[in-house]
Amino acid sequence: MKTLYLERWKDYQYKNGRSREECENHVLRYNREYFPITIREQIHILHKCGFEHAEIFWCSYMQAGILGIK
Question: Do 41 and 31 fall within a single domain?
């Protein structure tokens, strides 16, 4: 499943103006040059920063949108 997501992410980047080489290099960074946190951890950080409410308003592939209200 991860391979499918990465291929879709690479295709999306290409269709939005990046070169094939840029897309490939970006995907090669996966799990090497960053350490993503879980959605639950992100919401916890928002609460610690003073947001009274924080919730997911969309999830797509390997990304999520979180709405927070202070």
Answer: no
The residues, ordered by sequence, that sit 6+ positions from 44 with a Cβ below 8 Å of its Cβ are none
What residues make up the domain containing 5?
1-35
Evaluate if residue 37 carries a pLDDT over 80.
Answer: yes
**pTM for this predicted structure:** 0.50
Instruction: Provide the domain count of the chain.
Output: 2
| Same-domain check for residues 18 and 41 | no
Q: Are residues 29 and 52 in the same domain?
A: no
C-alpha dist (Å) from residue 44 to 3, 18, 35, 50, 51: 29, 34, 17, 10, 9
Q: Report the SS3 class of residue 46.
A: helix
Percent of the chain with pLDDT over 70: 96
